[in-house]
Amino acid sequence: MSQILEATPYEMIGGEAGVSQLVNRFYEIMDTDPVAVGVRGVHQADLAEAREKLRLFLTGWLGGPALYVERYGHPMLRARHLPFRIDERMRDEWLYCMFKAMGEMNLPKALVDHLEQSFWRTADFMRNAD
Ligand code: HEM
């Protein structure tokens, strides 16, 4: 019932356009903000593929169509991040970019609080170094 009555985060963020805006700003910030130089450094020079994959993944993760899974199967996110050394500092740089991008979008506070917690948990789960 609650699924019928309540909007998903995907709907609340503005569907396809909202997710694209978030992901584009996220990587723009990662690419240009000196705070994010560590996390930028573990990414490829060209961020296009990372941007597209995060867009597909977040669409499903936020409650929209499961685009990533349809294309690539189970994301196995933790395993996919093992090649990169992710400590607290790296995690926090990633979250800095995401929270900054979200902060620019004028989203309802309840949604921002919910997403900040969910992103924090997911990013901390990716941590593979002290
Ligand atoms: C905690 C710090 C994190 C670091 C340092 C990190 C780093 C990376 C790097 C270097 C890649 C490869 C991108 C490329 O250059 O092609 C990647 C891919 C990806 N990351 Fe992260 N990431 C982090 C957290 C997250 C979080 C929290 C999510 C989801 C909410 C996420 C979702 C993804 C996805 C979907 C991909 C594409 C996987 C694929 O190859 O199919 N990452 N990440």
Question: In short, what is this structure?
Answer:
The protein has 130 residues and is mainly alpha-helical. It has helices spanning 2-5, 9-12, 15-32, 37-41, 48-61, 67-72, 77-81, 88-103, 109-125.
Q: Mind explaining what this structure looks like?
A:
With 130 residues, the protein is an all-alpha fold. It has one domain (13-125): Orthogonal Bundle (Globin-like). The chain has nine helices and no strands. The longest helix has 18 residues, at 15-32. The model has no long low-confidence stretch (mean pLDDT 96). The chain binds protoporphyrin IX containing FE (HEM). The site of protoporphyrin IX containing FE has 23 residues, from α5, α7, α8 and α9. Protoporphyrin IX containing FE is lined by residues 39, 42-44, 49-50, 53-54, 57, 72, 75, 77, 80-81, 84, 86, 90-91, 94, 119, 122-123, 126.
CATH architecture call: Orthogonal Bundle
| Bound ligands, named by name, code or SMILES | protoporphyrin IX containing FE
Give the helix proportion (percent range).
55-70%
Distance between the termini: 42 Å
- Output the structural class: mainly alpha
Secondary structure: number of strands = 0
Q: Report the biggest beta sheet as strand number plus sense, adding barrel if it closes.
A: none
Number of helices: 9
Please write the string of helix (H) and strand (E) elements: HHHHHHHHH
CATH topology: Globin-like
Strand content: under 5%
CATH superfamily: Globins
Q: Using only CA atoms, what is the Rg?
A: 15 Å
